[in-house]
Amino acid sequence: MSEPVLKLKGVETDIAQYHILKKVDLDVPRGSVTMLLGRNGVGKTTTLRTIIGHWQARAGSITFDGNDITRLPVPDRARAGIGFVPEDMGIFADLTVEENMILAAISGPLDAARRDWLFSVFPPLRTFWNAAAGNLSGGQKQMLSIARAMAERRTLYLIDEPTKGLAPAIISTMVGALRELKAQGASILMVEQNFAVAKALGDHAAVMDDGRIVWTGSMAELANDATLQERLMGLSMEMQ
Fold first, then answer.
1. Rounded distance, CA 70 to CA 62, Å?
2. Whole-model pTM?
3. Average pLDDT, consecutive stretches of 10 residues, N- to C-terminus, the chain (240 residues)
4. CATH numbers and ranges of domains, the chain
């Protein structure tokens, strides 16, 4: 097997006086989708934000594509090939969809072929290309948020709860887009509370509890074992 695209070893992160991440060990296999699962408040979002550098790890190491990025600034991590889709979307409401996309293309002008591919997986982007992003619906804003991370080919995408609060038709579009992204060879680490989506997209799963990774394995193994789900997360995917 190839080396993981991302490796966290003993990562600890504090936010103010709170000790959130407690010696997190996590491998993200290359070219696949890893679901980061667990109940609310266990440290999933903090893990993603520590990887991208919004929060600095107090201890431990983060290795991406064979390089130690533990102390790199956020822009350098992005330039190294990591895309990030935050839970709060992170779009610029006063700018147009096109302007949001231009800003997201950090290496230069937005590639026309890449733009057309994004139009194919997220058709509303073409329709609202010249509209202010703040005027989009919630689902359209989420599409734009993910499209911004996809504006350039990245090695790894960190995606935080992309389907939260969205209608089933929008979720279906999201799942299709992420499948195409994976087919291009990208690696994805994704926090997701919708277990139907997790089961449909995930190759691997890592479950967090109280700031630690408490289980790793295949997504299929977790999805097919209601007893394991109940033990790890206090719920059953069969109910989703």
1. 5
2. 0.92
3. 92 95 97 95 97 97 97 95 89 95 86 94 95 94 93 95 89 93 95 93 96 97 92 62
4. 6-87+154-239 (3.40.50.300)
